[in-house]
Amino acid sequence: MSIISLIIKREFIAKVRNKSFIVMTFLSPLLFVGIAGFVAYLSSMKADTKRIAIHDESGLFVNEFVALNDKNSEYKYLDLSTIDMQFLKDSIANENYEGLLYIPKTKTNKDLENKIKFISNSSPSIIFIEKTQAVIADKLTKSNLEMAHLDTLAIKNAKADINISLSKATGEESIIGLNEIKIAIGGAFGYLIMMFIIIYGNMVMRSVIEEKTNRIVEIIISSVKPFQLMMGKIIGTSLAGLLQFLIWAIIGLSLMFAASVFFGVNIGPTSRVSPEIMHAAQQEFSGTAQLYIKELWNLPIASILISFIIYFIGGYFLYSSFYAAIGAAVDNQTDSQQFLLPIIMPLMLSVYVGFFTVINDPHGTIAVVFSMIPLTSPIVMLMRIPFGVPWWQIAISVSLLFATFFAVVWFAAKIYRVGILMYGKKPTWKELYRWLKY
Questions:
Q1: What's the rounded Cα separation, in Å, for the pair 322 and 208?
Q2: pLDDT tens digits for 34-87?
Q3: String of DSSP letters for 213-232
Q4: How many CB atoms are closer than 10 A to CB 221?
């Protein structure tokens, strides 16, 4: 058995036998399910109804708001137009009402547009203000049309309702929102890679720091080359991480299945929908659902899955070599913070580039360039692949990724060779550069 294989086996066994690894492997899914259940319980709780006092001197709008009481359980509008304004303001100060909507009486509707006030102790939400403005604007517009002796019903019927249907050049029907579905699929895979890199890259760094602290590495390095030791740590830790992810998936699916069987409920967004509503929705949207399913099956599923595995391995190995080099350069995790930001920044940049650029122009210059850069390609390219990427671009991107990985490992091994034997000194960027020349 080769030396690297022995190191991989040692790292893997050391990780999976660790008590914290075992506890978190089986406790994390339970915590996740518990938090999800708690959030679902909080979301199902009915919010307290907020009472809104209305003082409408014009008499035009109060009925419009009172009519919303049956449709809106979050706010209850009260007609207090006959009560003195000062008394109502004192009531607001004493928190008897959430707020007071004051509508003065003016000579013309035009004068009213900028004189309406909402009085409250705390700032109201933007959604509430927008809805309130919409109710007043609709009523005011209708009043203006009537004063101009215009037929409001005819104007309403004259409004056009456009519904553009999509189709491909081949004549097949297409659907709206397909780009959002594609970016969501690519973004989910990209986010999984980023999460795995951050969690288990830190694990590689902690492993190196621990060995430095315990001086175990002084014995190991006498018979193992730094390159071999670093590669063994990266691969061994990644295998432990993959095992943990697999266990999480199995436990999560088992808990969901057990909950559905034990409680006799369906797990999912349709679990609280009545059969009648579901049947009506199925009839109404069956054609659209078939189009969505057809479009999803037309996606390059094989390319997405294969590319995910390749970029998952390449991206993790690339960033883990950085983490291993940082662990060799410092004595504790506190000192590592100054070196972690340049590593995390490309990951964050790739997420922003993916969501704000790829969705609008997946084959544009910015998206293509960042899908070729090794530090961002594991996430950006995965977001582009659902839109269809030429094979030669994927080949170039993968080649650059793994070539950069081996180059970084070679440079990181130089830092590793010097850093693992350095104690009690916090290195600077200048010193790290000097270590590369040794």
A1: 12
A2: 787 777 777 766 667 788 889 888 888 888 888 888 766 678 888 888 888 888
A3: HHTHHHHHTTTS-HHHHHHH
A4: 16
